[in-house]
From TrEMBL:
Keywords: Metal-binding, Zinc. It comes from Cryomyces minteri. This is CENP-V/GFA domain-containing protein. Residues 23-150 form the CENP-V/GFA domain. Belongs to the Gfa family. PROSITE patterns: CENP_V_GFA. GO terms for molecular function: carbon-sulfur lyase activity; metal ion binding. It comes from the Eukaryota. InterPro entries: CENP-V-like, CENP-V/GFA, Mss4-like_sf.
Length: 156
């Protein structure tokens, strides 16, 4: 895993590009399942000669995964990406979702009421920029060691 050295400014999401990739995800028990399209994708569009390590922190063709230092993200081990809400499709499990609100109570953290997996954070943004903060740890067939990371400092 790699991380950028300086403290980032601006929104935590990587700006969209002309490429995207689709991902499937589910909670630990499988009660909640969803798919999403992410632009840019988590990995470069074409394989590199050494595909055994993380991408470099300066690669603009990949989506940076955010590691946040706030108390809830640290406690739950969230690794976050920020797709547009319109690009996330819940396949099953609406009735299995519970929410927890902390701090300002404006951004519900949704989790599985059966297994406790942290699914996403609803950022409650106005359209056309409405996004979710989605936990990459639940993505199927994604090697977390090959992703590009960026640390964000949230409230303690």
């Amino acid at each position: 895993m790699t991380s950028t050295g300086s403290v980032p400014r601006g929104p935590p999401w990587t700006p969209p590009t002309s490429t995207s990739a689709d991902y499937s995800a589910s909670c630990h028990c499988g009660a909640i399942a969803y798919t999403l399209s992410l632009s840019p994708p988590l990995l470069p569009p074409s394989p590199t000669s050494d595909n055994s390590s993380a991408t470099t922190s300066s690669d603009p063709s990949v989506c940076k995964v955010v590691t946040c230092t706030c108390s809830i993200c640290r406690t739950h081990g969230y690794l976050l990406v920020y797709p547009f809400r319109r690009n996330v499709k819940l396949e099953r499990g609406q009735d299995s979702m519970k929410e927890y609100r902390m701090g300002s109570k404006t951004k519900p953290h949704l989790f599985c009421k059966e297994c406790g997996s942290g699914i996403w954070i609803d950022l409650n943004m106005p359209e056309p920029n409405d996004r979710l903060a989605v936990n990459v740890r639940l993505f199927k067939d994604v090697d977390l060691n090959k992703l590009q990371y960026e640390t964000r400092h949230g409230p303690p």
